[in-house]
Design goal:
two-stranded antiparallel ribbon; 9 helices
């Protein structure tokens, strides 16, 4: 199910979607009598590719996702609001860093075995762990070709760079996706409060899964892709398509598809509950 879900969703990502429309349009235009339909698909594929490649659309799509949870600034025992988020009660005891793949290349140094996005999440987790001196740091490290022992070892070596002992982290090494990570986190933290650290655009989906599982969670965004403060409203780059804009469009599409999938699952679960009560 996991592989099928990932495979089918890829067809709706910006590049496969646009290329698919272009190829189908060219086939209809060149080899069938439906030339008008073929031309329409070619035009649609081209316009969509341009829209995904220019900065405006991915900026708007990602801004909506990244603005839902403000960054966490600091923790004080008597404060009920941190970084715009109301906490109330005691400070969180656990910090869960949602992960990404780690490279199986053991010849690389520890930091080079993680993607930039994963490193930003880990750095934010370490920062919060230093602020919450009695907290427990949890990190998810995926990668099907890397053993659990190797994941624990490379995380320990990475923590040494930040001045933390190698045993300062508990690693989730068996998760395939965010849902698995949230389920593992719930088993570890129980009813205790936990900070969920992830990329800002990914947090709305992660927090939705957390609420479904009953996590008492606080969001801590990292790895922002849209800078709404320092970037000037208009720059020469706005007039040209770029691969980075395509990347941001893909990130946004991945999250919106994930949110839509979870809402469909939630609606189906509600219908089943209603039917079971009849």
């Amino acid at each position: 199910m996991f592989f099928l879900k990932k495979l089918l969703s890829r067809f709706l990502f910006p590049v496969p979607l646009c290329v698919g429309l272009l190829l189908l349009g060219l086939l209809l235009w060149s080899f069938t009598k439906r030339k008008k339909c073929g031309r329409g698909l070619v035009v649609a594929g081209t316009l969509l590719l341009l829209a995904f490649s220019y900065p405006l659309l991915p900026r708007l799509a990602l801004s909506h996702l990244e603005s839902q949870y403000p960054p966490l600034a600091e923790f004080e025992s008597q404060r009920t609001e941190v970084g715009g988020q109301k906490l109330g009660g005691e400070a969180p005891r656990f910090i869960m860093v949602l992960g990404q793949d780690v490279s199986a290349d053991t010849n690389r140094p520890p930091a080079a075995r993680f993607a930039d996005e994963a490193l930003k999440r880990i750095i934010e987790g370490v920062r919060l762990h230093r602020l919450l001196t009695n907290s427990t740091l949890l990190v998810s490290v995926s990668g099907p070709t890397v053993t659990q022992e190797e994941k624990q070892r490379v995380m320990g070596e990475l923590l040494l760079i930040f001045g933390l002992p190698t045993n300062a982290v508990k690693v989730c090494a068996s998760a395939w996706d965010t849902e698995d990570e949230v389920r593992w986190c719930k088993n570890v933290v129980g009813t205790n409060r936990v900070i969920i650290v992830s990329s800002a655009s990914h947090l709305p989906r992660a927090m939705l899964l957390g609420r479904k599982s009953g996590l008492n969670a606080v969001a801590a965004p990292s790895g922002f892709l849209v800078d709404t403060v320092t970037q000037s409203p208009f720059s020469p780059g706005w007039f040209f398509p770029s691969s980075f804009s395509l990347y941001k469009s893909e990130r946004a599409m991945n999250e919106y598809l994930g949110l839509a999938w979870e809402r469909v699952r939630g609606a189906k679960a509600s219908e089943q509950k209603v039917e079971s009560k009849k």
